[in-house]
Amino acid sequence: xxxxxxxxxxxxxxxxxxxxxxxxxxxxxxxxxxxxxxxxxxxxxxxxxxxxxxxxxxxxxxxxxxxxxxxxxxxxxxxxxxxxxxxxxxxxxxxxxxxxxxxxxxxxxxxxxxxxxxxxxxxxxxxxxxxxxxxxxxxxxxxxxxxxxxxxxxxxxxxxxxxxxxxxxxxxxxxxxxxxxxxxxxxxxxxxxxxxxxxxxxxxxxxxxxxxxxxxxxxxxxxxxxxxxxxxxxxxxxxxxxxxxxxxxxxxxxxxxxxxxxxxxxxxxxxxxxxxxxxxxxxxxxxxxxxxxxxxxxxxxxxxxxxxxxxxxxxxxxxxxxxxxxxxxxxxxxxxxxxxxxxxxxxxxxxxxxxxxxxxxxxxxxxxx
Length: 369
Hints:
Blueprint: H1 48-54, H2 57-71, E1 75-82, E2 87-92, H3 107-121, E3 123-131, E4 137-143, E5 148-150, E6 165-167, E7 170-172, E8 177-181, H4 187-190, H5 192-210, E9 216-220, H6 229-245, E10 255-259, H7 264-267, H8 270-284, H9 303-326, E11 336-340, H10 342-347
Antiparallel strand pairs: 1-2, 1-11, 3-4, 3-8, 5-6, 6-7, 9-10
Helix pairs in contact: 2-3, 2-8, 2-9, 5-8
């Protein structure tokens, strides 16, 4: 029998060819090892870029204003119904997680640091830690965005929720992660030169603040006999000692005293610092006056108007990003939505609840005479 007519063993039979995945194709994660890294806080750390940005007072002020604004508001749920004329909101009982997003920390903490991630990196992540009987999420925990990598998107512009999420080196199931994508690009990516310029300017101001500038200079006339370095040092030391004990100074014709023209405001680069602070306000999308910067004729009359400006220019985009993401069908039942109670925040006068107005206080009991 010819070898060409011999039956081929099973090991020699070639398998049908497999089609290779297209380059850049988004493949779901094959494991969920990253879930074991959640809650291991010893491995959590702050990114270097954020730390450098936060070293600037203007950015720190803008971050604190926006984060505190959003985190201090309450979340509420509603349905939408057509009443024959317009779509009407009907508020409903909220799910338990709206009051306790992460059972381990208050909502003010979770929301503030979620906004922090959106502010600096342009996205934020919550891991779903439990689900209800209907399969919808019942609790969450925040994942620091600087510890999250997306294999299908390199950034810093994010196009859609990622299907390949890695947290602290381990893959996560994308179905168990809530991804917030900000409409505003993260500031550590969008204006690196503005932040770097502010840091260099701050370093220059620090050096100038640490250096001692002489109040004046003793100048020996050109036609006089030259003095050695030691003689010049002795002359300056004797002059300083005389100034400390006498109000009247006496100099020979060979020596002239010249006052230093440099002023403290020039040494501390005040004008350059104010311009750079205004530039950082533009980067952070807050009105400059909220950072203590003079804005000329622009003014506001009360704190209520300043809160409205902060909401309009700085905070609303991040707040809408959070509520729109939490209103998706993978989080809430269909036709259920989440929103911040902005009206209560903007209209509140922040009067202590346990303090009665002066007109309603009972009359003081008169002391016996």
